[in-house]
Design brief:
The complex is a heterodimer of chains A (231) and B (447).
Chain A lengths: L1 E5 L3 H13 L3 E5 L2 H10 L4 E5 L1 E2 L2 E2 L4 H6 L5 E6 L4 H10 L3 E4 L4 H15 L6 E4 L2 E4 L4 E4 L2 E3 L3 H12 L7 H9 L8 H18 L4 E6 L3 E6 L7
Parallel strand pairs in A: 1-2, 1-3, 3-6, 6-7
Antiparallel strand pairs in A: 4-5, 8-9, 9-10, 10-11, 12-13
Helix pairs in contact in A: 6-7, 6-8, 7-8
Chain B lengths: L1 H62 L8 E5 L8 E8 L23 E12 L2 E12 L7 H47 L16 H34 L1 H16 L5 H36 L5 E4 H11 L1 H6 L3 E4 L6 E4 L1 H17 L6 E7 L2 E6 L27 H13 L2 E7 L2 E7 L3
Parallel strand pairs in B: 6-8
Antiparallel strand pairs in B: 1-4, 2-3, 3-4, 5-7, 8-9, 9-11, 10-11
């Protein structure tokens, strides 16, 4: 999966790039409007991560170039602009998603993955991990084909863990993903802990081969359970 | 000096009007004189003569004899005559008796003139089925051929009084008119200054006046408001820019810290400290987002253009409550939402949603576990009340306080400041009350 990262801030661009490379994407960067335009005409990308304020022009003006490409890449806007107007403008122009800076790298990766999935729906309509499957169309979780009733937060936790399967997800990024702006309203760690506890119980009850493992001081990982995993 | 200048201008203004108005007034009163004399004859002399004739008529009726007096004559009328009565007066100017002209005659006041005035009152008296006509005549000879001095004196006195009354009324009207014109620019400008809002884009415009003192005052006011407005604009732009500019460095910081955290082989001590850094960055970014929103609301207000659509407040509150459903459940909060009154208002949807969201967030955030939240609707507004951690009402204005209790570590107190800014923009009013151990915030619109 090839990604073009259009971001004028060198330091941020480097960080995002290394994070994306770690996730197994191949990533190219463009630091200015013209560079981005050149790269868009030269090569084919699957996803374009686009900043709005660029030296040499506004990111919005790149949409014409992006849409003329044969591969019709997905577009994820990253911007400091937080207003509804800007978001609507971006989405109306054809962006797939809009992420407001500053964001967690995990969230960026998750959003890029979901854009790719939406672009190629026939390939992955559901995420399957051992006998656990997550139906992305209907937001349903099934264990051995049996539907599992989960709350909204639990669904989001499971989705996030599935997106980052076999990797450790920090409590912060998990709570940030699940609670979003409501993070200051509850004791977020306690909230996440309660929901993970319930989620584990539900998964175990249905005989799921996968379980959520606590990595002490680091976060949580979704792994195949080795049988004697304590709840 | 100021007063003399003012009064001088004032008086010249009135003078100008009088140059035209006084001759007109005089002509009007002189023309009126003739009319007054006529009225005098028709009313006073008529009454006098009538009384005389009435007296004669009554004696004729009682005695059946016709008393003979000077100036009274009787005449038998034809049998088919109708009864009548009228009064006439006439002035005759005849030729001079001494037709030879003597120069010194000019200086003699009492010239021998063959002039006369005749006043007559005529009426009929019925005597034994026949009508007799009685005529009372007074002929005055050798008098100037005009009205009697009695009538003239009356007319002059009357028109003098009339003249003074008209003059006084005219002066009063003028006084009001001139002072109205003089003060009008002042009051106009006063109204403009009152309606001036520093948050509006339009600069203050004042009407020019011819009065130097008012003009000086206007200049001072204009200087003052322009300075204040430019200072306000600079501050506003500065906050907007900082709010924007700071997000980029913050995202760099956050990305770097996350990259380090992803590395394996970190000591758990180091990891913990990095997590603290990350938490601080997220918090800082949250503060910035809040400030950003606040400055954006202010700039919407500044631009003065608010897009309005028809909104159902009940739906917006229900939707907002739904998003917090899990949190409410998690904290075991009892929510009462009665939709007794359906509210439809025309307002800006984004701002109303943000406001409702912030109010509910506030109600959940500052609530206690197993607490209560109730949403009640009134005729022109709604009220959200909740149980809270703080049990004593605070005197300070809770809307402008940017920090919550120090015990709420890491939580921002921007929510209510945002609510207040939105209310100000949409011209709602928000009132805070502490009632029956509950914090109530009432939002109302309209009158």
């Amino acid at each position: 999966m090839k990604i073009l990262l259009v971001e004028d801030e060198k330091l941020l661009s480097d960080s995002i790039r290394s994070a994306l490379v770690q996730e197994g994407f191949s990533c190219e960067t463009a630091l200015s409007f013209l560079e981005a335009r050149e790269k868009l005409t030269d090569k084919i990308y699957d996803v374009v991560v686009l900043d709005i304020n660029l030296p040499g022009g506004l990111g919005f003006d790149l949409f014409a170039d992006i849409q003329s490409m044969d591969s019709h890449p997905g577009v994820l806007i990253i911007s400091v602009r937080n207003s509804l107007d800007d978001k609507l403008k971006g989405l109306n122009l054809g962006a797939d998603d809009y992420l407001v800076k500053p964001f967690h790298l995990d969230e960026l990766v998750a959003r890029i993955r979901s854009i790719i999935r939406r672009r190629h729906p026939q390939e992955e309509e559901e995420m399957v991990y051992y006998n656990l499957s997550y139906d992305l169309m209907n937001n349903q979780v099934k264990v051995n084909g049996q539907e599992l009733k989960l709350t909204h937060s639990q669904l989001r936790i499971l989705y996030y863990l599935l997106m980052n399967k076999n990797r450790t997800v920090s409590k912060e990024s998990l709570s940030d993903y699940v609670l979003k702006d409501n993070i200051d309203m509850v004791d977020s760690f306690d909230y996440i802990y309660t929901h993970i506890k319930n989620l584990r119980q539900k998964l175990k009850k249905e005989g799921c081969e996968v379980s959520i493992v606590t990595m002490y001081g680091m976060g949580y990982t979704l792994k195949k359970s080795d049988g004697n995993q304590s709840v | 000096m100021a007063t003399s200048q003012y009064s001088k201008r004032f008086i010249t203004k009135i003078k100008k009007v009088y140059v035209v108005a006084l001759p007109i007034l005089l002509v009007v009163t002189i023309l009126f004189n003739n009319y007054v004399i006529d009225v005098y004859y028709r009313v006073f002399y008529r009454i006098r003569f009538k009384n005389q004739v009435e007296a004669i008529a009554s004696t004729v009726k009682q005695t059946g004899k016709f008393p003979l007096r000077e100036g009274v004559s009787y005449q038998l009328l034809p049998s088919d005559a109708k009864p009548y009565s009228y009064f006439t007066y006439q002035f005759y100017d005849l030729e001079d008796v001494n037709s030879s002209f003597n120069f010194w005659m000019i200086f003699s006041l009492n010239r021998q003139l063959n002039n006369k005035r005749i006043k007559e009152y005529i009426r009929t008296i019925p005597v034994k089925d026949r009508l007799y006509e009685v005529t009372v005549t007074e002929v005055t000879m050798n008098e100037p051929g005009g009205p009697e001095s009695e009538a003239v004196i009356f007319a002059v006195a009357f028109s003098l009084v009339l003249f003074f009354i008209l003059n006084w009324a005219f002066f009063q009207i003028n006084l009001n008119r001139v002072s109205y014109n003089l003060w009008r620019p002042f009051y106009n400008n006063l109204r403009r200054i009152k309606s001036y809002n520093i948050r509006n884009k339009e600069p203050l415009l004042l009407q020019k006046t011819s009065v130097r003192e008012f003009e000086l005052f206007n200049q001072a006011v204009l200087d003052f408001t322009n300075k204040t407005q430019s200072a306000y604009n600079q501050l506003r732009e500065f906050t907007e820019n900082t709010a924007h500019e700071l997000q980029t460095p913050l995202s760099i910081l956050l990305a770097k810290v996350e990259l380090i955290l992803k590395r394996t082989g970190l000591e758990s001590e180091e990891r913990k400290e990095l997590l603290d850094i990350k938490k601080t960055i997220v918090r800082l970014s949250g503060i910035h987002k809040g400030l950003n929103l606040l400055s954006r609301i202010r700039s919407i207000q500044y631009a003065g253009k608010i897009a309005r659509t028809e909104l159902n407040i009940n739906d917006i509150i229900s939707e907002s409550l739904e998003t917090y459903e899990e949190l409410i459940e998690y904290r075991n909060i009892d929510v009462q939402h009665e939709s007794s009154i359906q509210h439809r208002i025309s307002s800006n949807e984004e701002l109303v949603r943000i406001m409702v969201d912030n109010l509910l967030r506030n109600a959940i955030q500052h609530n206690v576990n197993e607490g209560k939240i109730s949403v009640m609707y009134q005729k022109y507004g709604f009220e959200i009340s909740n149980t809270g951690v703080v049990d004593a009402p605070t005197d300070e204005n809770i809307f402008s306080r940017y920090h919550t209790k120090s015990a709420d570590d890491g939580r921002l107190g921007l929510g209510l400041a945002i609510v207040e800014a939105i209310c100000e923009t949409l011209e709602f009013s928000c009132v805070y009350q502490y009632r029956e151990f509950q914090h109530c915030i009432r939002i109302s619109w309209g009158k």
